[in-house]
Amino acid sequence: MTARIIDGKALAAEVQKQVAEGVAALVGGGVAVPELAVVLVGYDPASHVYVSNKVRQTEAVGMRSRRFVLDANTTERRLLDLIEELNRDPAVNGILVQFPLPPHIDTARVVTAIRPDKDVDGFNPLNVGRTAAGMQGALVPCTPLGVMRLIKSVHDDIAGLGALVVGASNVVGRPMARLLLQELCTVSIAHIRTTDLERRCREADILVVATGVPGLVRGQFIKPGATVIDVGITRIKSETGAERLVGDVAFDEAIDVAGAITPVPGGVGPMTVACLLANTLSAAQMEAARSQAAGIDRMTAV
Ligand code: NAD
Which of 119, 121, 230, 248 is catalytic? Predict the structure, then answer.
């Protein structure tokens, strides 16, 4: 069997088109252009590339973006003050703080400080809880949201399928497992201390791998016909000094066994950015609905 390759770039382009249409409809209805504020602390080159990409794509779908670059020595207080300013700024619909943050800043305090309705990364505890409870109105972390769209491009219905998520981070693995559970998959999570990973992987109809360990999942780990989503991205330098990106799945082996598989690059990465745009639009739409409801309430009171 040769697996179908899931084209993350093409699916991301579809999402971006839908977001652009949503933005045009919102603005056409008299609402201000949605705006994303991106905050970067320090000068990590990879983070700068990610942020530039996010800013460029935000503008490409007709939204505004504002970029704040703070010095690597910025205090936690200064960062929290900036977040508070952005929380209060009515022009800002989404706030994204690029990770990783320098070690002197407490990441948990930062994600908690972002207003839940502007938390387009979906890491604020209120959004985490709402997602876990399957509640409406949650902003869901972009990578798992993108992965669900990739999976749904292969399966009309995943209820009842066995899913294994390898990796249990708060950014990818845990929210991923919660979304799969919401779709009524039978979900397991594997992590660094999991024993017999190979056997557990081989039981999964849907295998999502997010560990950052290049080539961890070998071809023989995969159930024939399974859908394999490779979230991992590791930059590897060849002997000539050229860099390339590799995933957590041994793609050349997996392609002969899986039913469908995402490539690295060109799989999950583009969908993550597209879902950030979708979340920013959702935040703006929810804000517009709240403002309209408040306006109607005021009129009723008069
Ligand atoms: P993390 O380091 O926070 O978490 C890694 C997880 O993998 C942990 O739960 C750990 O227990 C588990 N793990 C590590 N080694 C393992 C092993 N040998 N067997 C089983 N489990 C193991 O990483 P993260 O932030 O979740 O990111 C994971 C990978 O996904 C990284 O390569 C990251 O670059 C990538 N990533 C990609 C995107 C994207 O848009 N494509 C987004 C976020 C993260």
Answer: 121
**CATH class of this structure's domain 32-116:** alpha beta
In ligand 1, which atom is closest to the CA atom of 271?
Answer: 40
Q: How many CB atoms lie within 10 A of CB 298?
A: 9
* E-state strands within 71-185: 94-97, 162-166
3-state secondary structure of 237: strand
Closest by alpha carbon to 145, among 273, 14, 232?
273
**pTM exceeds cut of 0.90:** yes
Instruction: State if residue 269 touches ligand 1 by the CB under 6 angstroms criterion.
Output: yes
Using 70 as the pLDDT threshold, list the residues of the chain that sit under it.
297-302
For the chain, the domains span 32-116, 142-268
Is 3.40.50.720 the CATH classification of the domain at 142-268? Answer: yes
How large is the greatest C-alpha to C-alpha distance in the chain, in angstroms? 74
